[in-house]
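W.,

You were right to be curious about this one. When I first looked at the sequence I had no strong expectations either way, so I just let the prediction run and decided to look at it fresh. Below is the sequence, 157 residues in total, followed by the output.
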Amino acid sequence: MFNDNVLFLATAAQIGGLILTILVCGAAIWKGAHTERVAAISIVVASILTPLVQNWTDWHSPQWNILIIDAANLGVFVYLLVRNHRVWLLFGCAFQFLAVLSHFGMVIDPRIMSRAYISTLYLMFYGLMIALAVGIWEGRRRDARARVASSERNVLA
């Protein structure tokens, strides 16, 4: 299943991505609003499926199965953006869209080094995680403002 040169949790980028996924998605599921929870669940599902469908034997070919997962994740984020109009979702969609586009870069020119291809996917994933973390923070601030406004109306009534 594994190439001799690449293991699932062998690099700092892989380990950092796993830690970031656990921390940010865990926080989103625990403390986030419905939108952040759906986004986090989508990211977790994609993160679990990706190594399961990854082509471990041919690193010089496009990862078609991962492209499908990334496109589905992009679909979830676009759906959430259309329904909720939150700024962090715009950035999340942008990072996920760039991840999908990076797959097509490999299709257009297979001479792209596989490390550059994979590194780009990691960078886009980190951007997506930052956008979700900002979404959690933004949602908590929005909820706090709503509670203050609600309590002020109760005092004035």
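Here's what jumped out at me. The longest helix spans residues 114-156. And, maybe more interesting for your project: Residues 141 and 147 are 10 Å apart (CA to CA).

Coffee later to discuss?

I.
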